[in-house]
Amino acid sequence: MADTAELWRRYKETRDGRAREELVIAYASLVRYVSGRLAMGLPSHIEMDDLESYGLIGLLEAIDRFDPARGVKFETYAVTRVRGAIIDRLRAETWAPALRHKARELEEAATRLETKLGHLPTDEELADHMSLSITDLHRRQSEVAAAVILSLDESTGTSDDGEGAAMVDKLEDPSSPDPEAEALFTERREVLAQALEKLSEKERLVITLFYYEGLTAKEIAQVMSLSVARISQLHAKAILRLRGRLARSKQQLIS
Q: For 149-182, how does the pLDDT look when each residue is reduced to its tens digit (9 = 90+)?
């Protein structure tokens, strides 16, 4: 197979179908990587093959739209498109709205209880507050893991080409700093750091391994000697707590 620079040249200049196929093969690992990370907490009937097929659509679109002359690494550009394609398809599934509703209920209940108690509620306190058994609470936390993943890429508007744009696509040019935006970012980063400190040790480790080390749920389960289902549950709990704290911070800033 030709080197990627030559493949890009051939495809962009001539729309050579063979060059496009070879680019897909060259970057197929991106689809596997993104699919593996998104698999955390998804319903058991969702197969990796399904996720990869959804992601392949995003990869093809990324290849068609990518402009090598802009000086951006294709991998950086493509990961967002692949992830977006998978999430768009998952959002269309019939189970998604119900799970997202359950996720909001959990988040709101935890936020109200923390305000009342003055500390992050334990699972026992949250279960009692929601009139659930510990088993039922843990089951619900595991169920909403998929909804937590979907909520992380909510569309924030419309891009220049008329499509929904994820927040990552609407970032300002880093060469043109906005003092107000920088101050807000700094404050939110501090709030997030404080929220992370209040998570349990296991929850912090899951967040660190997933978002900072880039491990998949299966890999994290091996590192922590826990089941993938337990890792999914810890991830969902941590994200719901972080979202709740950030939401309260935002409300305080605008009130």
A: 665 444 333 344 434 444 334 334 444 445 555 5
Tokens of 91: 């959002």
For the segment 199-209, what is each residue's pLDDT rounded down to a tens digit?
Answer: 889 988 988 88
Query: What domains lie within the chain, and their CATH numbers?
Result: 4-91 (1.10.1740.10), 96-254 (1.10.10.10)
Contact 37, 216 (CB under 8 A): yes
Check: CB of residue 140 under 8 Å from CB of residue 109: no
Across-strand partners of 164? 158
- DSSP characters for 161-216? TSSEEEGGGGPPPTTS--HHHHHHHHHHHHHHHHHHHHS-HHHHHHHIIIIIS---
pTM, full prediction:
0.55
Start-to-end CA distance of the chain, whole Å, equals 59
